[in-house]
Amino acid sequence: MVARARAVAFQIILEVSSTDAHSDDLLRSRQVDALTQQDRALATTLVLGTLRWQIRLDEQVRPLLTRPDAKLPPAVEAALRLGAYQLLYLDRIPVYAAIGESVELAKQAGESHAARMVNAVLRKLGRLPHESPPPKAKDAAEIAASYAHPQWVVDRWSRVYGLETAQAICRFDQEPAAITIRLLDPDTERDLADEGIGLEPGEVLTAARRIASGDIIRSKAFREGRIRIQDEGSQLVAELAGAASRINANGKIGARGRILDTCAAPGGKTAILAERNPEASITAWDISKRRLEAMRRTLAPSGDRIRLEVRDATEGNLQPEYDLILCDVPCTGTGTIARNPEIRFRVSEQEIARQHARQVRILSSAMSGLAASGRLLYSTCSLEPEENKAVVAECLNANPQFTSHSLADEIEKLAAAGILTHAAATRLIASAIRDGFLRTIPGIHNCDGFFAALLTRK
Fold first, then answer.
1. Which residues are catalytic?
2. Burial of 400 by CB count in 10 Å (0-12 exposed, 13-18 middle, 19+ buried)?
3. Residue 244 pLDDT level (bands cut at 50, 70, 90)
4. What is the pLDDT of residue 315?
5. Of 16, 152, 235, 286, which one is least surrounded by beta carbons within 10 A?
6. Which ranges constitute the DSSP H helices of 255-288?
7. CA-CA distance, 274 to 300, in Å (whole number)?
């Protein structure tokens, strides 16, 4: 008999390895939601931990195989990785449970012939000491090996950000990602406390809270849509787009006419645009009909002033009619590896180049739709310069009627309006603004990695 949490974790790990599914999405599925709080926490730990340490796990498992270079069936590989993670990284999991249930999972997946091998390999691993990365690595190769990242990725980050920051990013990626919520009503904080949900202040935003304890998914406030789970970096990008350009000299948020969100799903940023622009007409595009339908349910409280359209943002021939455009484009997502650890296995130099080309098409299309005196915020959750500064530079060179503006000014306006704390604004301007662009870095900032640039038509 396999514990339900391990069975669910095994299926998710197997699906992530054999499809393009993301662990973050799968961990929000109905089968996970049906688990008890304790089982859901264990399943989440097993999935994300196994994926985070997969490179190190394979390095430990492979030498113990009779044929170390042999291609294993996906289910056998998943069972070995899941068992190895429990043995090498989790103190509270009994050895017999980690080994026995991994063997049983391989059998249930139709790989009974491999059960003896899985048992033998995991028994050998069970005698090894627990893994612990060094406090400070001396070069990119050691960082990559210690924190289970592809070396070419760490080499790249070391060149762009420096060795110390590259290690900070990798260390952050290996830790459980914080659960951050957005409070839509100040009274909700008291209601959550009554339900046993412990909250801590956000890093920078006054409406953000971090979950310190309790099961936020089971809370009445979550079920009623009075809070949203959203990384604080993501919230910050939306605040910069949705409020800063409309804050007047008195620190008040004014109205804005027509708003376009070009790549809107899953809708968290669209919701903030609506929140900060209660009189605006908002058009939200996404290429996925399924994801837009999910957005429709999330955004239902905003009424019919948000129009959702299935549309490919690369194929625009717009008239300059929008006062505000958020261009939060699809990207490699390397700033969210802590939340989606499998990204490290899927990104490549070729994928970065492909994303760059698509991002240039999306931003160029969006720029054509910006009205005179309007503002456009371009953003990604990527750490790669080719997807960030290089996209902005290419589009500005091709569109000389546009210019960029420093987001430091917008951060100060957000602080004046009480959306950011003044202390947080000072920290952000010192640590996250470079050449006028916003750049949050995991491990330096306690959130996902985001890039943002503010553009206007001259």
1. 381
2. exposed
3. very low
4. 84
5. 152
6. 268-276
7. 11
Cβ–Cβ contacts within 10 Å for residue 35, how many?
Answer: 16
Find out whether 131 and 146 touch, Cβ atoms under 8 Å.
no
User: Domains (ranges, CATH) in the chain?
Assistant: 4-125 (1.10.940.10), 140-173 (no CATH), 180-229 (3.30.70), 232-457 (3.40.50.150)
**Tokens 């394979």 — which residue?**
58
* Structure token pair of residue 346: 């899927």
List the one residue out of 372, 343, 338 whose CA is nearest residue 442: 338
CA distance linking residue 426 with residue 424, whole number of Å: 5
Q: In 180-318, where does DSSP find H-type helix?
A: 187-194, 220-223, 232-242, 268-276, 289-298
Q: How far apart are CA 106 and CA 49, in angstroms?
A: 19
Q: Could you tell me if 149 and 428 are in contact, meaning their C-beta atoms sit under 8 angstroms apart?
A: no
Q: Which residues of 63-88 are buried (b: 16+ CB within 10 A; e: fewer)?
A: ebeeeeeeebeebbbbbbbbbbbbbb
E-strand ranges in 193-331 read 198-201, 208-213, 227-229, 258-261, 281-286, 306-310, 322-328
Q: How far apart are the first and last CA of the chain?
A: 67
Antiparallel, parallel or unpaired: β 451-457 and 322-328: unpaired
Instruction: Give residue 24's identity as a one-letter amino acid code.
Output: D
Q: What is the pLDDT of residues 397-437, one digit of tens each?
A: 999 999 999 999 999 999 999 999 999 999 999 999 999 99
Encode pLDDT of 160-216 as tens digits: 999 999 999 999 999 999 999 999 888 899 999 999 999 999 999 999 999 999 999
Number of Cβ atoms within 10 Å of the Cβ of 352: 19
List all residues 6 or more positions away from 67 whose beta carbon is below 8 Å from its beta carbon.
none
CA-to-CA distance for 220 and 162, rounded, in angstroms? 45
